[in-house]
Amino acid sequence: MDPSYSASLYFGSCTRCSKAVYGAGRACRAMGHLYHDTCFTCSVCSEKLSGKPFYSVSGGIYCENDFLYSGVHPSPEVCNSCGYLIMDMILQAQGKSYHPSCFRCVICRQSLEGQPFTVDSDSRVYCVSDYHKIQAPCCAVCRTPILPTEGSTESIRVVSSNRNYHVECYSDFIRFISFRAIYHNITGETTLCQDSIPWSVALQDSSVLRCLIVDLGLLALFTTQHSLLAWSPVKQALQSVLGPLNRTAYCFTTALALQILMQYWQPVTGAPCLWSVRHAPWSIWFPLLCFTLHFICWAIICSILMIFDYPELLGLKQVYYECLGLGDPLSHKSPHAQRFLSHLRHPVCLELGVVLWLLPALSLDRLLLAGTLSTYLALAHSLDKQDLAYLCVQINRKMQLLAQPHRGIADATDRDGSNHKEK
């Protein structure tokens, strides 16, 4: 065909400029309308759209970029992460919209589509593990985050005096021996045992056995240290080497062994309790009763400790007397004062027995602690015969004092009877 003839062909009027359209190379048809190829352009950037994808919105024609990002797109959904429009699949979480590929943890960039996630106050998305690492409260003892155990999404902590603790770090002596063991029954915030796990399964669990071995080793360390330094040959050897510092060394090593025991004690949470009070109303009243009795026992123990001669108990007075050439300070006391510590040992041991065993729930590690310490106290501190004789004398005196008013009444009655006969 003659090119000049093709260029002279008349196709009609342009929809945009209303001028005649001549020639096939200068015309294009879109949406049922005729345009000059120079008139068929984007309403925003004026890019020629002949042969390219385009969009028509409210009579305007737009290239793909301006349709998506100039604000003419009819969809209001914008990805909360990248800020771009969501054209196909949309993922919504916490009232926000995301591209599925943009819904990732801000720390590890792991895709969270179909996975547990957490959002902070700034709407940033985290996987559960990274959120706990960043947002978890720190333990007031070890200064590390309190994180959930493996396989769990919830962390267990103890809150005391506006401070957070790992359960295993909540461990000064009274809390370790007494209050921590009944804390979970009152608040429900900690878990000491798993009653749903059979004993046959729990005793084959490597984590349970590992905790028991560690706890048994800690108890062996504490009892061995306490017994070894109280053994006469060792005491004499230390006395010859350390002199007046012997008592101070004993107190220091005992306190160190006790702190190691409390710091590294492993609660056995993967085994059932030997007993557990969980049925109302005793699930509330019995823990409170235990708490009250424990408080009374510790109050008695602390009141006894307040009347000790602490400089002598800690070995400070021994060093002071040695410097003055006065010898052992105990030799300057009366026989009754010398037996003071032995006399107070029995009520302290009795109250420790109460707080070791009187609990609303007895876990496996608590049984090991209570059984070992009770056996050690029974073997190492038997009833002192001299102290028993002293107690018997005191009881007899009290009984005599109680009987004296009755004898006085009886004597007065006899005298009245004799006077009546004389009359």
From TrEMBL:
This is LIM domain-containing protein 1. Residues 12-73, 77-137 form the LIM zinc-binding domain. GO terms for molecular function: metal ion binding; transcription corepressor activity. It comes from the Eukaryota. InterPro entries: Ajuba-like, Ajuba-like_LIM2, Znf_LIM. Keywords: LIM domain, Membrane, Metal-binding, Repressor, Transmembrane, Transmembrane helix, Zinc. GO terms for cellular component: adherens junction; nucleus; P-body; transcription regulator complex. The chain crosses the membrane at residues 285-308. Gene3D superfamilies: Cysteine Rich Protein (2.10.110.10).
